Amino acid sequence: MWTTKTFLKKRKGSVLKIVREHYLRDDIWCGSDICTICAHQNEELVLEKNPQPKNKKFPFPHYIVLDTCVVLNQINVLEEDALCNVIVVQTVLEEVKHRSSSVYKRLLDIVGNPNRKFYVFVNEHHKDTYVEREPGEKVNDRNDRAIRVSVAWYESHLMSSQADRRKRDRVKVILLTDDVDSKQKAENEGLHVATISDYVRNVEDCPGLEDRLSQHNTTYELQAGGREPLFPAHFTPSQIHQGIKSGKLLQGSFLASRENFLEGQVNVEGQDKMILVQGRVGLNRAVDGDIVAVKLLPEEEWSVPSHMVLQDEGDDSEDVLEEENAILKSKDERVAKLPTGHIVGIIRRKWRQYCGILQKNPIEGSVRHIFVPAERKVPKVRIETQQADILSSQRIIVTIDSWPRNSRYPLGHFVRALGTIGDKDTENEVLLLEHDVPHSKFSEAVLSCLPKLPWVITEKDVQSRVDLRHVDICSVDPPGCTDIDDALHCKELENGNYDVGVHIADVSHFIRPGTAIDKEAALRATTVYLVDKRIDMVPELLSSNLCSLRGNEERFAFSCIWELTSEAEIVSTRFCKSIIRSRQAMTYEEAQIKIDDLTQNDTLSKSLRGLNSLAKILKKRRIENGALVLASPEIRFQVDSETQDPIEVEAKKLRETNSMVEEFMLLANIYVAIKILEDFPECAMLRRHPKLPVSNFEPFIKAGRNLGFEINSESGKALALSLDNAVRPDNAYFNTMLRILATRCMMQAVYFASGMVQRDEFFHYGLAAPVYTHFTSPIRRYADVIVHRLLAVSIGADVTYPDLLDKRKSHSLCHNLNYRNRMAQYAGRASVALHTHLFFRGKVQDEQGYVLCVRKNALQILIPKYGLEGTLYVSPHKGAKQNVTFVYSEEKQTQKCGDVIFRPFDPVTVQLSLDRSNVQHEKIVLKLVHPQIPGFSVPSLSSVKRKESDENLQEEMEISEVSVSPPIEKISTKKQKVK
Amino acid sequence: MARMDLISFKGLRLDGRRANELRQIRCKMGVFSQPDGSAYLEQGNTKVLAAVYGPHEIRGSRSKALHDKALVNCQYSMATFSTGERKRRPRGDRKSQEMSMHLRQAFQAAIRVEVYPRSQIDIFVEVLQADGGNYCACVNAATLALVDAGIPMTEYVVACTASLANGDVPLVDVSNLEENSGGPNLTVAALPLSGQVALMEMSQRFHLDHLPKVVECALQGCRDIHQILDQAVRRHTEMSGSALGWGNRAQVDL
Amino acid sequence: MAEILLSEAEKTFILHGVEEGFRCDGRMRLDYRPMEVETDVVSHASGSARLRLANTDILVGVKTEIDTPYPERPREGKIEFFVDCSANATPAFEGRGGEELGTEISNSLATAYQSSQTFDLTALCILPGQQCWKLYIDILILECGGNLFDAVSLAVKAALHNTRVPKVKGACLDGGTVDLQLSDDPYDCCRLDVSDAPCLVTLCKIGDHCVVDPTAEEETCSSGSVVIAITEKSLVTSVFKTGVGSFHPQTLIDILKVGQTIGLSVNKALRAALLEEEQQGRKKECFGFLK
Asked: What is the CATH number of domain A841-963?
């Protein structure tokens, strides 16, 4: 037993000198059947006595030694049965393990196969083959030297056992390496050496092998120990401060791209264009949401967003991604470039806890794993855990701790597990957490603010309110709605005018400023509607009972009453707190039937008809004023009443009554807005929809132009008109799609305090209203509660309080409301997506879809029936082969394959199915059915059934993942309501 | 570091040993002149010095004196530079105090304390370099120092650690790296000739079914170490004997 | 210190001997005892040395850690001495028994190294004001055979000579935190320049005369000593007196002169020994305590 030591230094906050023992042995055998020297056990004799020489270049019996790069790059080749009698030296094995755990696992599988005759030689512990690192020698060079020493050792070791053989029968050892330097050295040392491609090309009887050679000649920078930093250093806070002060740097929030993990934008306050950041260096460890400092590049280095859909699929290796180069190279000179920058520093991290799943390290028993967040904008996180086996089937929460320069992924740690993947409750929890929706139970303090039951209307209440119990009021809502916050009435007056009232639940009566319930509601800001669940803003007693304007129950309301002429001209407006009794709570459908059924002549029916006709006039007038009719695909699930699993999906139907209710709500909102702005010019809470910069419309206009439609986005009215005109007789859905796309170009409407924004920016673009607010849904929106309070003060029905009149407080409140609203919307969409997944479990369906836009490597497809948007990849994944090639034209926005050209808005038929092969990551897969492209498309379902016996079904092609449609603001008062 | 890694599929441990192999042990007796007995021992990269003073009068308060036997006083201390990260204090921390106690336990079982009533024997060990199995190295060094001091013992006290790799392979003489990789760790101080266990301590958990196997592994380690120590003692006696003249005679006899 | 019990007669013998210029072990008054030094004995430490001066046995380990520089000295590293008196040396050191002596020695070293002319701390700076190396010089006294100050200071110098500070290839600020890249080549590291590190020379007053390198027995006869820190350039960086006795100012001046010459030769001898050892190169056999 020999002993020497190796010296290692490790960093762990500080520098440690670590010394480990390293024993060199004389009982490590060569594993060859030829050998007469080594004291082998029988099972250790792996390498054959007479290996078949099957190589034209080396027509003598030989063993092969591989170097690390060969294994890493050409593991596909090695997996073929062609190469046998291979010596894997331990140096290589360890390096491979270090570099790529997946390749390591595959290599071990090969070694474990006795037919392949792969022998692992522990050269590092062999007394004759161990080499010590020389001063000044790089780790790589030392390892290459170690491999060569082993080769030389084998050569001489075997020679001594086969002195009696004929010269040409003697087994030699060949080193396969792609490293030029090492090859040269090996030649100088008199070893047999070849490159892998050289060797493989000359292998006999194995025709397909050469094709499996990996072409990309990535030279892996092999490093043990101290890794080179992958990222440039961040600036110090003082440098950033100075830079921003002097204007050299810009401060903004970083928004990572959902589609391409190597791209993002920085939203700099006060600049209308976002700054593009690309590539690993450009992003420099910024995580979505971080406040960062960016340095703008000189204009000649500006770039364009790549049209690639790119997901991070790399494992834990540290190599430079080819994708990254692809992105950076793909700069097209013709397209207008965007201001591009590099992130140079992080001003404030906005790291939070992230939900996601564990991607287990393929090496059994390892504690280092990769965490894949549910949110694609967030990078993968490296964590250490002992319980990977349990956690790999769970949704887990992880937080990021740091992101050192030499790590491709940030480092974090496991926080807690949410539950089994795929379980609906778990998934709901995930999406609530992921969208930062406060969803815990209401606290005792909050519940103690609720009125005591039974709740009765006292004499005092009656005196302070206008008694409207005699008026025939009714409410119209989606089926199953329990939080009814609006009701209507319409009465023809003797002068032929109409008395029309909008009655809104008087939530501010129950939620007094400053109480616990008020604070909680302000925090939650909105009720969140998921497909199978509702996260209330206020406790259920209020939302579904005391505030809900239920049929035939006396309720407090805040009424807005107009006198309208039959031409819907407003004669007078008044606001009052009231007591009402809704005659009936109707669904849209019931109301529609009542209106349509002319035999019904009760007061309710008449009043509905009156409302309906007035609403039509109002709508017409509004659209004439330039209000936009936009679209977003909305769907409903029919849910199994017991399992709550979705059984059918349908797009939402819109009836006249929907628009009727909507029209009056808009009217109420606008008039309330005018009123409160008049009385509180500084602190009215309003809602504006900024006119968007024309540049936002550019891609949209381009898409339209390619199809021969000129879209004019100069004003809302012009846009509305051009949208109306863009109709294609052959494609009924075309117009809707245009509207969907237009909606996506829009900015979000936001709440604001009137004193914080210039008067000319109050405009609501989508509704073409000079001022607008939210008044009509106080049960589910906190903004409405504030507006109620303001209005109550302005009509003398209530008293004011300091915070209400403080425009800065209002401003920060608006900030929260806007944030929560946005999150609630995303959560709702995520919930729909989740249910779509549940729905597709075990189903395969062919559906009509439309090309929404064309990407460089994919088509975005919209399937109206499910409101679902998916990606149909047209270029193959890394490593996969595809027989057809698509040609992308950025100018024309087309993908061409043979005769088939895909343009935006083209109808296609796609096959939908759920890919459950990875339990952790189910995804909906789109496959092309029509138009047919041989070798790419799949036969339609009906034809597959006929041809089931036909084995030659085309190879399954590309895959995609489905995303819910990106942010769209619904400019309407519609709500998704839930049973 | 994964448990899997402790022993490769080629049957070698991280440092190139097989499961049943000890680290290299080198030792020397009588390194210092002032103590009554001293020894230096290396077990791989773990290096310790032991010094024995006594038997002598009880130091400090006489009340500690035992009327029928000698008091065995042990102190374990580690040089501040002995570990990877610098230690703040050489002794007095919980771990060292526990170690001192364990040392005392093991040696009280082996020293013939009844020969020296009302007196005291001091055993001081100093870890110069820690690389796993510190306690064992200390016990083994102290045994040599006691022999050097000529203090009668029933037999050598020898200590060894053992662990369990891959769930079923017992490993002997665990290094620091293996200690830290999370496996169970069993320390046994034994009187190898009679096969008695003077001290046993275990960290982490493993299934009771594995215990006999691991204990046997540690005991085998103790027996192997005993041989090495015994040889060292004989060699040392020969050397110091030769200085007195009787070594020469032995050579002549040969 | 170690308990040495001497009778009056023994003391008188030593005293008279010194007066005559003869010492018990046959040395002259200004002779040192034989010394052995070996470096790189503790592989876990960045630098180490073991020095044996007759019966005095010292082991020094140097550890490097990353620290923040003192705000008033942003461009300098830090150095800290810690002396641990092992109970191996004498049972009196058991527990906290050796602490007082340890503090005395470490303080004297700190004073001797305080001067900017001795040991260049700026070499330990990584990023001015942000990060520097801190050297922990841990001294372990394994056996006391007298003259601890001299032995410790020589061992420290040898250990510092042996110290290899990891080479920082690049240091920069990454956001607010410091990011270091270390060279991954273990041979690629920085040596420290110890040519100006001081040695302590103890002159021990026995009767009316002074001796150097007193044995433990001689120390018990002494009424006091003067310790002088001297660099190779014969700069005296600190002088202090230990023990209970008193000195005449003229005696002190004489002592300083003697000490200076002795200090120089000791420094020289150490340097020669270290160079000789270094010339054996990487393949040098490490004896440690096995010799």
From this structure: 2.40.50.140
Query: CB within 8 A of B113, min separation 6: which ones?
Result: B69, B70, B72, B121
Distance CA(C227)–CA(A697), nearest Å, equals 86
- Does A125 contact B9 at a Cβ distance shorter than 8 Å? no
Chains B and C form CB pairs within 8 A to the count of: 104
**Listing from the earlier edge strand, what are the strands of the sheet with A62-66?**
A118-121, A86-89, A62-66, A172-176, A192-194
Q: Does C230 touch chain B (CB under 8 A)?
A: no
CB within 8 Å: A21 and B4: no
Per-residue pLDDT of A443-491, as tens digits, reads 888 888 888 877 888 888 888 899 998 988 999 988 888 888 899 999 8
Please tell me which residue of chain C has the smallest CA distance to B83: C44
Best of C66, C174, C286, C290 to disrupt the A interface by mutation (most A CBs within 10 Å)?
C174
| C-proximal residues of A, 305-364, CB under 8 Å | 345-346
pLDDT in the model for residue C119: 86
CATH number of A237-348: 2.40.50.690
> What tokens were used for A857?
């490597």
Considering the four listed CATH numbers 3.30.70.100, 3.30.230.70, 3.30.70.1400, 3.30.830.10, the one that applies to the domain covering C12-282 is 3.30.230.70
For chain A, the average pLDDT equals 79
Assigned fold of A353-421: OB fold (Dihydrolipoamide Acetyltransferase, E2P) (2.40.50)
Residue with tokens 């520098």: A15
- Neighbouring C-alpha atoms within 13 Å toward the C-beta of C91: 18
pLDDT digits (tens, 9 = 90+) for A405-417: 878 888 888 888 8
Torsion of Cα atoms, B13 then B16 then B20 then B26, to 10°: -130
Mark C222-234 as b/e (b = at least 16 C-beta within 10 Å).
beebbbbbbbbee
Which residues in chain C are contacts of B38 at CB distance < 8 A? 88
User: For testing the chain A interface, which of B7, B25, B45, B180 should be mutated: the one with the most A CBs within 10 Å?
Assistant: B45
Widest CA span in chain C: 73
Would you call C48 an interface residue with chain B, using a CB distance cutoff of 8 Å? Answer: yes
H-run or E-run covering A24: strand A14-24
**CB-CB under 8 Å, B84 with A21:** no
Query: Does C63 lie at the interface with B, CB-CB under 8 angstroms?
Result: yes
Pairwise CA distance, residues A584 & A582, whole Å: 6
Facing C175 at nearest CB: one of A11, A224, A346: A346
Across the interface, do B28 and C44 touch by the CB < 8 Å criterion?
A: no
Is there a contact between A19 and B45 if contact means CB atoms under 8 Å apart?
Answer: yes
The DSSP line for A666-679 is HHHHHHHHHHHHHH
Which pLDDT value is given to residue A881?
Answer: 60
Q: Mean pLDDT per 10-residue run, chain C (291 residues)? A: 75 91 89 91 89 92 90 91 92 88 93 87 87 92 92 94 84 70 74 90 90 91 91 90 87 89 92 89 74 71
- Give the CATH number of domain B3-243: 3.30.230.70
